[in-house]
Amino acid sequence: MRWVLPEHIEDVLPAEAARIEALRRAILDLFARCGYELVMPPMLEYLDSLLTGTGRDLELRTFKVVDQLSGRMMGLRADITPQVARIDAHLLNRRGVTRLCYCGSVLHTRPATPTATREPLQIGAELYGRAGIAADLEVQRLLIRALALARVKGARLDIGHVAVFRSLAQAAAIGPEREAELFEAMQKKDVPLARELTRGLERRWREALLLLPELYGDRRVLALAARRLPPLAPLRRALATLRALARACTIPASFDLAELRGYHYHSGVVFDAYCDGVPGPIARGGRYDEVGRAFGRARPATGFSIDLRELAAVARIRPWGARR
After folding, report:
1. Any idea which architecture 160-274 has in CATH?
2. What is the rounded distance in angstroms from the CA atom of residue 202 to the CA atom of residue 194?
3. What is the dihedral sign for C-alpha 240, 210, 220, 304?
4. How far is CA 279 from the centre of its chain?
5. Do 23 and 312 form a contact (C-beta atoms < 8 A)?
6. By three-state DSSP, how is residue 280 classified?
7. What per-residue confidence (pLDDT) applies to 50?
């Protein structure tokens, strides 16, 4: 049957399209009021540029094709954030703070979950040129305002910081290969494997690393971490940042100090947003200073992206074109 679409690729019919469009306009208007300028990166670009600084995870999710004009490998974007970082670094090349936003489809080689589409509609905001807690707070507040616009139920954040694990791994002098294996164990919360991989480390580092999977919960986790983890300077700064985010958060928040999503991509705070009616994260974000460095311009960067189709499915918003 010629008209059958590939698995996990769907048409968007009028009722759903109207809800998505209403939400897209409302969120982009919010971003504009907050000083974020709209950019529209291409769906397709050369693979070496598209994947710069992003790590292997994004490469596995990216469709690849050969450019018939140049013979070079190209990719269909699986994430817009690296493209916006490239625009900031090489096309705008501004000094000082730059705020950019975007909305567009991305394509994934495999669905993120058994019920997910392989063509998410990604909307997001990125802040460049400002390091420190002020930028992290701005981005967190902007995401919360976007979720409030959608009037979703049960909005909540799950927040981590990659510097916690990274500082302990460096202090313990773990080699790159074992660090990668331990990273996988932490992601899977595989404590028996983590015990095996940390065997032979100095006791204080081993105990600290094995404590991380237990450090999950409300803001009291941060106080427990401050008492029980070694007083490493990068780790203390990470905990101070998380405490500031906890104080400023206006929706329920939990903290996971073993959360290492995007470990090779992010450089600081990482966070996921959830709401009722959606099984997985509705939005993801964090700090990714190292991506700008990979593009040849070291520049602080933080932001988030929302799965607009997932959000529209649970949003309580008047559809675009509906009579008032």
Report:
1. 2-Layer Sandwich (3.30)
2. 14
3. positive
4. 17
5. yes
6. coil
7. 83
Contacts of the segment 214-223: beta carbons below 8 A, 24+ positions apart: 215/255, 215/256, 215/257, 215/258, 216/254, 216/255, 216/256, 216/257, 216/258, 217/254, 217/255, 218/253, 218/254, 218/255, 219/243, 219/246, 219/253, 219/255, 221/255, 221/257, 222/246, 222/255
pLDDT of residue 115: 83
Residues of the chain with pLDDT under 70: 1-2, 53-57, 262-264, 321-324
pTM given for the model: 0.91
The reply to whether domains 1-155+285-324 and 160-274 share a CATH topology is: yes
Q: What pLDDT sits at residue 297?
A: 77
Question: What beta strand segments (E) does 14-141 contain?
Answer: 37-38, 44-46, 63-66, 73-76, 98-105, 121-128
Backbone angles phi, psi at 137, to 5 degrees: -65, -40
| Fold classified for 1-155+285-324 | BirA Bifunctional Protein; domain 2 (3.30.930)
How many C-beta atoms surround the C-beta of residue 209 within 10 A? 26
Burial class (CB within 10 angstroms; exposed 0-12, middle 13-18, buried 19+) of 251: middle
Structure tokens at 251: 């929706």
Q: Give the Cα separation of 69 and 83 in Å (integer).
A: 22
Q: What is the pLDDT of residue 324?
A: 54
Q: Domain spans of the chain?
A: 1-155+285-324, 160-274
Cα gap 100→141, rounded to integer Å: 16
C-alpha–C-alpha distance, residues 60 and 9, integer Å = 18
Question: Phi/psi class of residue 195: alpha, beta or left (left: φ > 0; alpha: ψ in -120 to 50)?
Answer: alpha
